[in-house]
Every structure is written in C-alpha cells, then in structure tokens.
Design goal:
Layout (H helix, E strand, L loop, with lengths): L7 E8 L9 E10 L3 E10 L5 E7 L6 E7 L8 E4 L3 E5 L4 E3 L8 E4 H12 L5 H11 L5 E7 L5 E3 L4 E4 L7
Antiparallel strand pairs: 1-2, 2-3, 3-4, 5-10, 5-12, 6-9, 6-11, 7-8, 7-10
Helix pairs in contact: 1-2
Length: 174
C-alpha cells in the first residue's frame, strides 16, 4: 500500500460568513492525493464568530464514468469504506432509494452504514415510517440490499473485495 503525501494548502483566506455576516470565516482548502481517486480538494471552513462549519470533498480531476456496485449481505459488509463524489447518484433498489447529485451536492467518505444514516437524515418528508423502518433494518444488517453508485466523474469507490466496477454508459436525455 502506498502512503499518500500530506495534504497541501491551496487556498487560505478569511471570508465573510454566510450565517453571521462577519469577516471571521477561516477558509482553508487542501489538495490531497489518494491512491483510489487521485487528487481531491478537501475544504475545511470555520467561522470563529458563530461556529458555522463547511466541510466538503471534491475531485480535482475526473476519470472515465463508472458504476460501482456491492451486494450487502451481512453486518460486516456495512463497515466497507465508501467514497461518493459530489457527481455520483446513489441507488438502493431494494429500499426504493435513488439520490441524484444536485448543484450543491457534497462528496463524502463514509461506511455503507454511514451512508444509510446520511440517507435517513436526508429523506425527511420524502419517506414514510415504513420506509424509515426498512432503512433502519438495513443499517442493522437485517435486510440484504445492493448499493449502486453511478458516477460521471469516475472517482467514487467502495473499498471491498465484494464490490464490482464497470463503465457507466451515459445516455443523452432530450
């Protein structure tokens, strides 16, 4: 396994906070080279006045579009590490979940269980009690499901021998 270099600061400035409007937002962006995804920009912004935080992971470069898929069959599978780029769509057919990337989507690094927690936080009014219960059961390893990541940037990955990757065929929707 190769050791990545330390992140390099590529942007550092004090900005106006979008929440409290004072010039106390310490913004630092780092360029980080990873073995799986190549170069990433890690943003770590913090307002010293009101405590507002902004964290983000975005690709610095892109690759060929790809589809990453993994069948989650037991509780151990839930601990697999996942990087979902800001450009990736997440699909879990067995739970009826499709999350499209949006303009303000953020990339993140998490486990499969963590992705389910994020989904549970985000579904809000879009999911009834039965839907929430199914997500919670999946988080506990009681439901087998498939995690599919469709990434136009080609950077997302699931770090597991059970994960498969193939080219993503993009179609033009007119």
């Amino acid at each position: 396994m190769t050791v990545s270099e330390e992140p390099k600061v590529i942007f550092e400035e004090t900005l106006i906070c979008p929440v409290c409007k004072s010039k106390t937002l310490k913004a630092v962006d780092y360029l980080y080279n990873t073995p799986h995804t190549g170069k990433l920009v890690l943003s770590n912004w913090y307002c010293e006045n009101c405590g507002y935080k902004f964290r983000d992971v975005k690709p610095y470069e892109t690759r060929e579009p790809k589809l990453v898929e993994m069948k989650i069959e037991n509780e151990d599978d839930l601990s697999a590490l996942v990087y979902r780029s800001a450009f990736a769509k997440i699909v879990i057919p067995e739970l009826g979940i499709e999350i499209e990337p949006a303009g303000m989507s953020q990339g993140y690094i998490s486990t499969i269980e963590g992705i389910l927690e994020i989904l549970l936080d985000q579904v809000g009014n879009f999911c009834d009690k039965e839907c929430e219960d199914r997500i919670r059961s999946a988080m506990e390893g009681k439901i087998k499901f498939t995690l599919i990541i469709e990434d136009e940037s080609g950077l997302s990955f699931i770090k597991s021998e059970k994960a498969s990757t193939r080219p993503l065929i993009l179609t033009n929707s007119d």
